[in-house]
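Hey, quick one: can you model this chain's 3D structure?
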Amino acid sequence: MGKFISSAVVIAVIVAIAALTNPSADRHREAIRKEVAERSALERVLGVGVLKAFASSYRSLGVASYTVVNDRTVSVGAFGIVYVVR
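Sure thing. Here's the predicted structure for all 86 residues.
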């Protein structure tokens, strides 16, 4: 019984940390802008990253989040980290 309780406490702490560090919509949009700017100088000049970030729809799952543009997942985030899907 002691192992069960300690495992439950550890899992609860991890879920709480994930919920508290879930990236915001602004963090997703900033990551998208940076990724597009690093990928292509032309896209940076044309502002494609800004447009793509603006058009993205933020969705939160409580402990993780993601953004979607035209039914395509553009970024995923958890524990304060945002990864832009290419």
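One thing worth noting: The helical segments are 2-20, 25-39, 41-46, 48-55.
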